[in-house]
Design brief:
Length: 574
């Protein structure tokens, strides 16, 4: 009986911990144990920010909320460390679920379709910005912060400090999502091999130019050929790494701006206009008018087909044989195993796992043997185009979430992105979201151990990397078409041209259904009349645009490389 009473008392104490004991004592304990000086704010400013959270949360003390994000190191830190701290400080009990990226989208879609409040907030990729704007089922944060959410919006939030807000702002100039973490896909290479005197001499003798960071795909191809089959430290190495299994992860490989790296679409930062990197064209009112060349789109245009063909050729000729049957998750760790010279499409989210002591790609002093650099571009690429993809996981509040729960969740979203905690969170996850964090001295000190991550994020080149933009009217429905089409090309069932013809046609079927439904109103798709490539190319050129470009007969342009150390110096001088 006494044991039962003790257990009951313990449960009661736990139940009341969220409200009765929340406050500045808990905040100070959190700052002492977890944050210290690893923050852009000094201790007094940290305490002031925490005091604001304590006061703003009082009306919601004892409330239990649920939020969801995909499973990344950054979000694991939020779920395991910051959620508990927030609960202790505010009295709002938050459960931060970590689920698969596809599951996040599925739950969000279900909530959109049914109105059932499954989660009180989501960390949802900004790739859905066009979806959220057109369906109008998420709270636009610009209006929310000024009105219903004003009493729970941190005066020190500093929206201008977030580096990804241009990606989460719709054509109506409203902010729909708050960036939480970001990572880019960049070029990865073995810095030690590229600086080896014999490798440099042999490359120069064979190709007639210096071994270095490739500026264009022609140089990348030469470097891939040079290293494939070469023996280094007693083992055969490869000049390229990728993956090819027909799997949903194959879709990300291409929707994550692969076509734009080749030169698909139009000029424009953060995304090409009027034709984006998916090849989807919009009119002057941001209404999608087509994906196929026949409607002025570029998904199956020469630049897109070239991008797929190069992917296929390089995977077959220069990657380990097993890469053909790998998924994204299986292929990701391979470069860190030490037998790959370069990878054109490497996510900076892999940084933390690629600098662990004892890896074949890490020196004894803890510095990496590799570096990351801007991605090379294809023959159709022109100055003024985006050059790669940036994943921006962002806090999203659904309109179907009751207002009090949305307010409590908004407090948590601001807490985990606050200046008090952001440097520490970024030190753990290495996924930057704030300019002040990127410039923090702690990252200046750590830069030498991170292979170019800090240098890239401090560089002017950063703006050329962006997520999927607002031309895509329904990301969940359209994105799932890509892996099936590309999978057919990867397996050999279809040619690159046939695969992209099929993909653009399927995208237009979806857009046609949305148009007929009228659900997106006057910002939804309105498919254009069909004409040939020559017609649409002339139309684009007459308006000062590019896409769809005509086929370039010689797609092997003059190769060009740049010395990595000189490249970094040029960034620092800008």
């Amino acid at each position: 009986m006494r044991r039962h009473l003790l257990t009951s008392t313990a449960v009661m104490l736990l139940a009341f911990t969220g409200s009765a004991f929340a406050g500045m004592d808990e905040a100070k304990t959190f700052l002492d144990k977890e944050i210290g000086t690893v923050s852009t704010l000094d201790r007094a400013a940290q305490e002031a920010e925490m005091q604001w959270f304590v006061d703003a949360a009082k009306p919601f003390a004892g409330m239990e909320i649920k939020v969801a994000s995909e499973t990344l190191t950054t979000h694991e830190y939020e779920s395991k460390t910051l959620a508990a701290a927030f609960t202790a400080i505010t009295g709002i009990k938050v459960t931060h679920d970590l689920i698969g990226e596809g599951d996040v989208v599925e739950k969000l879609q279900t909530q959109m379709q049914t109105g059932e409040n499954i989660y009180d907030a989501y960390v949802n990729d900004s790739d859905l910005i066009g979806t959220h704007w057109r369906y109008q089922q998420v709270r636009n944060l610009t209006d929310w912060m000024a009105n219903e959410g004003k009493d729970v919006t941190n005066p020190g939030l500093d929206i201008a400090d977030f580096i990804g807000t241009s990606f989460t702002t719709a054509p109506d100039k409203k902010l729909y999502q708050l960036p939480d973490q970001q990572f880019a896909n960049l070029y990865w290479f073995r810095y030690d091999w590229f600086n080896d005197e014999k490798n440099k001499a042999d490359f120069k003798a064979k190709y007639g130019y210096d071994l270095g960071v490739p500026v264009n795909w022609s140089a990348y191809e030469d470097i891939a050929e040079f290293f494939t089959g070469r023996e280094i430290d007693g083992k055969k190495v490869y000049g390229h790494m990728d993956y090819g299994k027909k799997d949903p992860s194959l879709g990300w490989r291409f929707t994550d701006a692969w076509l734009s790296m080749a030169g698909n679409g139009d000029k424009g930062i953060p995304n090409g206009l009027p034709v984006d990197e998916w090849g989807i064209k919009v009119d002057e009112n941001s209404r999608p008018v087509g994906s196929c060349v026949a409607r002025g789109g570029d998904t199956n245009g020469p630049a897109a087909v070239y991008s797929i063909q190069k992917y296929l050729d390089w995977l077959k000729a220069y990657a380990p044989p097993e890469a053909q049957g790998m998924t994204f998750g299986e292929a990701g760790p391979v470069p860190a195993q030490g037998n790959v010279a370069q990878q054109i499409f490497w996510y900076t989210a892999f940084t933390a796992d690629s600098v662990k002591p004892g890896l074949p790609v890490v020196n004894e002093d803890g510095t990496p043997k590799w570096r990351m650099a801007p991605s090379p571009h294809g023959v159709y690429w022109k100055d003024g185009m985006k050059l790669g993809y940036q994943d921006v996981g962002s806090w999203t509040l659904m309109k179907s979430t009751p207002e009090d729960r949305a307010k409590a969740a908004w407090l948590y979203a601001q807490f985990v992105t606050s200046k008090t905690v952001d440097v520490k969170k970024s030190q753990v996850g290495l996924t930057f979201a704030r300019e002040s964090t990127i410039q923090d001295k702690s990252f200046t000190d750590r830069a030498k151990d991170l292979g170019g991550l800090v240098e890239f994020y401090r560089s002017p080149a950063r703006i050329q990397w962006s997520p999927t933009g607002t031309n895509v009217p329904d990301y969940p429905k359209l994105a799932q078409l890509w892996w099936q089409a590309i999978g057919d090309a990867s397996s050999g069932a279809k040619t690159a041209q046939e695969a992209m013809d099929s993909l653009c046609a399927e995208q237009e079927k979806v857009m046609g259904r949305i148009e007929r439904s009228g659900i997106q109103g006057d910002i939804g798709p309105k498919l254009a009349e069909e004409h040939d490539l020559d017609f649409w190319n002339k139309d684009a050129v007459s308006k000062g645009n590019l896409a769809p470009q005509l086929k370039i007969e010689n797609e092997k342009e003059k190769p060009q490389t740049v010395n990595y150390d000189e490249l970094v110096k040029s960034w620092q001088s800008n």
